[in-house]
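Work Package 3 committed the consortium to producing structural models of liganded targets before the mid-term review. Because experimental data for this complex are still outstanding, the team generated a predictive model from sequence and the ligand definition alone, so that downstream docking and mutagenesis planning could proceed in parallel. The input record is reproduced below exactly as it was submitted to the modelling pipeline, together with the SMILES string for zinc ion.
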Amino acid sequence: MTRSQAVRSRDRHAAKLSELGSVLRGSLFERAVHHSSGCPKCARGEGHPLWVLNVGYPGGKTRQVSLRPEQVPEVRRALDRYRETKETLEAISELNQFLLRLDRDEAHEKEREA
Ligand SMILES: [Zn+2]
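The resulting structure, written out as tokens with the ligand in place, is given here.
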């Protein structure tokens, strides 16, 4: 990879970073709530589906947020956006690291020529 290829690729990635205000970290899972008595659905063993956002923190702590069904599509999009944003940041960081090493090596060669 040449310097100009790395810079172009980095700038393409950076241009993709948008809608940063709507990112959300965590994972989504569905679980069923079962009432102990007085609910015909639960008496039939069906239960009620409930969506939960699970967010992990350093030290193994987690927080769970129960969601209304109508919130799920937006949460899914926000989780995707977080993942894509993180991948893009990682790609930019790798390219900047490559450029850093290139700068160092070129400076080193100039010193030897002098
Ligand atoms: Zn029930």
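Reviewers should note the following from the model. Residues 46 and 97 are 54 Å apart (CA to CA). These observations will guide the Year 2 experiments.
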